[in-house]
From TrEMBL:
CC annotations in GO: ATP-binding cassette (ABC) transporter complex, substrate-binding subunit-containing; maltose transport complex
InterPro entries assigned: AAA+_ATPase (IPR003593), ABC_transporter-like_ATP-bd (IPR003439), ABC_transporter-like_CS (IPR017871), ABC_transpr_MalK-like (IPR015855), ABC_transpr_MalK/UgpC-like (IPR047641), Mo/tungstate-bd_C_term_dom (IPR008995), NA-bd_OB-fold (IPR012340), P-loop_NTPase (IPR027417)
UniProt source species: Celeribacter marinus
Gene Ontology molecular function: ABC-type maltose transporter activity; ATP binding; ATP hydrolysis activity
Matches recorded under Pfam families: ABC_tran, TOBE_2
Keywords in alphabetical order: ATP-binding, Nucleotide-binding, Transport
Keyword match Transcription regulation: no
Family membership noted in the UniProt record: Belongs to the ABC transporter superfamily.
Gene3D superfamilies tied to this protein: 2.40.50.100, Nucleic acid-binding proteins (2.40.50.140), P-loop containing nucleotide triphosphate hydrolases (3.40.50.300)
Protein name: Putative sugar ABC transporter
C-alpha cells in the first residue's frame, strides 16, 4: 500500500467555475479516510481527480513516491468501487472478479487462487457462477468490492457505494467493509482507503479520520471524536451530530463577570470558558449539542425559557423541540427521564451544560471557545 498526498489541488471548469479551491490532504498508508459533506461540496470531484477520471487544474496528487497528475487511471495503482457497482452484466461473478487480473496477463493459477481468496473473504463463493442480474443489491456490492480488492491496489477509492441499499443492508455493509479493512491491516496488508459519502453516520462509524468539505473547501480533518467534541467551525458543528448542534445568535459581554445573552435572556459564562474568551466581546454564535442540555424547573439559574414546539418519541429517547426567541433548540432526553406531562405549547426552561458550550465567530464561523483556538485546515 501507499500514502496519498494532495497539495494545493484545484479544479476549475469551463467558464471559470472553481469547484475545488486548492485543498491539502494527507491520507496515511493504511488509513481509512472518509470525505463527507452536503451535495455539491466537491467530495466526489475530489475522488475522481485522485482516480484520474477528472483532470486537475492546479496542484499535485502523489500516491506513494509517484506524482500521478498526468497518469491515466490504469497506471495510478488505484481501484474504485462505484455507486452503481459497474459490474459487467454479461460476465458471471467469477469473471467479473478476475477480469482485471486477466487484462494484466497474470498466470492462470494466480488468477484462480486470488479469486478463491477474495470470494472467501467476502463470503461470495456461492455466487461465483451467477450473473449480476441474479444478485441482490448487497451481493452486487460485495462483488464490486471484491473486484477492487483482487487487484491489490495502492489505494482503494469508494464513491458512495452504499447509497443504493436499504437502511438495514447499509448498516450490514458498513460493518463488512470496516471489518475487511481491519482484517487486512491485521494480516500485514494495510489498505489505504478514501471513501466518499454524504451520510454522516457512515462517516462517523467507518473512518479513522474524516475530512469535512463545503463548497470545494476542507473545513476540518480529524478523528470522529474530535469532530464531534471539538468542531473547528460552526459548519462542522452543525453538520456532524444527530440531531445537529443547536446554534443561535447571541451576544457576549463583560462587565465584571462575563455573560451571554440569547433572545433577550442572559446567563453567566462558566469561569473556564470565560478565561478562554477574555479577548472576545460582542456578537457570537452560541452552540450546544442536544445531548448536553436539560429541561429544568422555571427560574433555574443559567437557563433559557422557551415554548415547546414539538415532541418526537424516538423509542429510547425523546427529542424535545423548544422555541427560544426565533431559534429552535432540541433537547435529547432519555425516555425513562422524560416528564410525560409536558405537552406542545408548554413553557419550559432549557439549561445548557456549561462545560459543553461552544462559541463561534459570527463572521468567520471559527470556534473561538476551544482552548487551543483550533481553526479550519483550509
Amino acid at each position: 500500500m501507499a500514502d496519498l498526498q494532495l497539495t494545493s489541488v484545484e479544479k476549475v471548469y469551463g467558464g471559470g467555475f472553481k469547484a475545488v479551491h486548492g485543498i491539502d490532504l494527507h491520507v496515511e498508508d493504511g488509513e481509512f479516510m472518509v470525505l463527507v459533506g452536503p451535495s455539491g461540496c466537491a467530495k466526489s470531484t475530489t475522488l475522481r481527480m485522485i482516480a484520474g477520471l477528472e483532470t486537475i487544474t492546479g496542484g499535485e496528487i502523489r500516491i506513494g513516491e509517484n506524482i500521478v497528475n498526468d497518469l491515466v487511471p490504469g497506471k495510478r495503482g488505484i481501484a474504485m468501487v462505484f455507486q452503481n457497482y459497474a459490474l459487467y452484466p454479461h460476465m458471471k461473478v467469477r469473471r467479473n472478479l478476475s477480469f482485471g487480473l486477466k487484462l494484466k496477463r497474470e498466470p492462470k493459477a494466480r488468477i484462480e487462487s486470488a479469486t478463491q481468496e477474495v470470494s472467501g473473504i467476502l463470503e461470495i463463493e456461492e455466487l461465483l457462477d451467477r450473473l449480476p442480474k441474479q444478485l441482490s443489491g448487497g451481493q452486487a456490492q460485495r462483488v464490486a468490492v471484491g473486484r477492487a480488492l483482487i487487484k491489490s491496489p495502492e489505494v482503494f477509492l469508494f464513491d458512495e457505494p452504499l447509497s443504493n441499499l436499504d437502511a438495514k443492508l447499509r448498516a450490514s455493509m458498513r460493518i463488512r467493509i470496516t471489518d475487511l479493512h481491519k482484517r487486512l491491516r491485521d494480516e500485514g496488508r494495510p489498505a489505504t482507503v478514501v471513501y466518499v459519502t454524504h451520510d454522516q453516520i457512515e462517516a462517523m462509524t467507518m473512518g479513522d479520520r474524516i475530512c469535512v468539505m463545503k463548497e470545494g473547501h476542507i473545513m476540518q480533518v480529524a478523528d470522529p471524536v474530535t469532530l464531534y467534541e471539538r468542531p473547528a467551525n460552526a459548519f462542522v458543528a452543525g453538520f456532524i451530530g444527530m440531531p445537529e448542534m443547536n446554534l443561535a445568535p447571541a451576544v457576549l459581554a463583560k462587565d465584571g463577570a462575563m455573560t451571554l445573552t440569547l433572545a433577550g435572556q442572559t446567563i453567566a459564562v462558566p469561569r473556564a470558558l470565560a478565561q478562554r474568551m477574555d479577548n472576545h466581546e460582542g456578537p457570537v454564535t452560541f452552540g450546544i449539542r442536544p445531548q448536553n442540555v436539560e429541561i429544568v424547573p422555571t427560574n433555574t439559574p443559567d437557563a433559557f425559557s422557551g415554548k415547546v414546539h414539538n415532541i418526537e418519541f424516538m423509542g429510547h429517547e425523546v427529542n424535545l423541540h423548544v422555541h427560544i426567541g426565533d431559534s429552535n433548540f432540541i433537547a435529547v432526553i432519555p425516555n425513562d427521564k422524560f416528564d410525560t406531562t409536558i405537552q406542545r405549547g408548554d413553557d419550559v426552561c432549557v439549561r445548557p451544560d456549561g462545560a459543553r458550550i461552544h462559541l463561534f465567530d459570527q463572521k468567520s464561523g471559527a470556534n473561538i471557545s476551544l482552548a487551543d483556538q483550533t481553526r479550519a485546515l483550509s
